[in-house]
Amino acid sequence: xxxxxxxxxxxxxxxxxxxxxxxxxxxxxxxxxxxxxxxxxxxxxxxxxxxxxxxxxxxxxxxxxxxxxxxxxxxxxxxxxxxxxxxxxxxxxxxxxxxxxxxxxxxxxxxxxxxxxxxxxxxxxxxxxxxxxxxxxxxxxxxxxxxxxxxxxxxxxxxxxxxxxxxxxxxxxxxxxxxxxxxxxxxxxxxxxxxxxxxxxxxxxxxxxxxxxxxxxxxxxxxxxxxxxxxxxxxxxxxxxxxxxxxxxxxxxxxxxxxxxxxxxxxxxxxxxxxxxxxxxxxxxxxxxxxxxxxxxxxxxxxxxxxxxxxxxxxxxxxxxxxxxxxxxxxxxxxxxxxxxxxxxxxxxxxxxxxxxxxxxxxxxxxxxxxxxxxxxxxxxxxxxxxxxxxxxxxxxxxxxxxxxxxxxxxxxxxxxxxxxxxxxxxxxxxxxxxxxxxxxxxxxxxxxxxxxxxxxxxxxxxxxxxxxxxxxxxxxxxxxxxxxxxxxxxxxxxxxxxxxxxxxxxxxxxxxxxxxxxxxxxxxxxxxxxxxxxxxxxxxxxxxxxxxxxxxxxxxxxxxxxxxxxxxxxxxxxxxxxxxxx
Length: 583
Prior knowledge:
- The protein is an alpha/beta fold.
- The protein is built from 20 helices and 13 strands.
- The protein folds into four domains: about 5-85, 2-Layer Sandwich (Gyrase A, domain 2), CATH 3.30.1360.70; about 120-130 and about 270-380, Rossmann fold (3-Layer(aba) Sandwich), CATH 3.40.50.620; about 165-260, no CATH class; about 400-575, Isoleucyl-tRNA Synthetase, Domain 1.
- The chain is globular.
């Protein structure tokens, strides 16, 4: 079903046309003043310029037509020309019933469904996930789910960093520690020789050690660069060791992402794009876009309209090795061949914007994708501590994601210790769900481009704009429906103002989904879920559902509670937040 404002716009536009005015003037929007009306149309102001007529006169003409429509209970003209609209209770009830029976829960489906690839996650193998990976994972997952519920085909790709210098650093350090390993021998035979089995703890210790070492030891740094180059050129022993590093790392990464409720359709890495690099280089050469500069191969991407200098993008370093831009461009070729996408979204730290601007411009100049394919950088801000700086551990280090998950789970467990609503065997599962709801909602309620302060106490509160409050609202409705038992719930009327307010929130949700999708902004979904919960709370306190003697009212109120639960759960599911039965 389409959003209510789209439906109303069609009605009001027709009224403008009947009065001899341009139908394009009939755009309806939600009201800024709900105390005055529910919807408004300001087209009379634009019409005044077109028809040399006072705005209120145009609005009066249109209002006379709209007052004959039974979908409105009130149509008012407010000088100098505002057209204020309020829906009739019968029409509101009709729409709410349509939402109730709609398999999409009133979420407007894409008129032209599109194929979208979302690049998010972006972890590096041989390194543990840390707190800096949180936002990409949960924002990307929410955007993937959002695009899908709006009717699009979406492919989520983790885009592993598995082919760069970090692998060379690990290989070089392992070589120094275990020089007798056969994989470091020039005569390594992949068909008969083996690589020792590695484990995540070893890799998580080796990489930071090697990285730090490379900053002070020039010989070791050169050795790591050589290892990277030889790996990328197919040295058998290094390829075998790399595959073992990949095996261990991916298993560990999947475990952590699973705890976050994040699931990728594809686990492609930079290495998967490597075979497209020769094709990329040939395209750049054939189109005379690439040229040598200080030994490196570069492509100019500066535009005349640029207000600041735009450096050329380097596609091959002076030592003939590939860098991020090379693999990102090759990945665009790969994605175009594999998926023929209409859009490719990159959910990446906003500090990487210059890099992606260069890559996208190079891709456009080289015509790596059709002109109609959108390449969009969806940058996100940082998660900061109370000092306003990127969140750190107590000793000033970068917190591992697994440690953050453990921290919030333990905080939830502590709060559930004395709960009489949660059984002992369910406590750990509930604690995990509450912890994830706290950090996900606390993150996603902010626009993705904004920095925010990580405040666990605030996020864990059962009051205010938190994920815990939403889970509590769902559990409260669960309790009501459990008490109602087999009592038949059925929408049949509107009896109170708080009921009308809740129904309006449900009706307006379709527009919210549309805005969230068009702006790629999950915070709209967070805000709407919260507003639904607040409206339900008001409705619940004003109307004593289970004690209501009028069975017709009780049936309608139970149905409204049930639909509200369905809608909030749908919002939470798109945000990647699991609900609990009771709290």
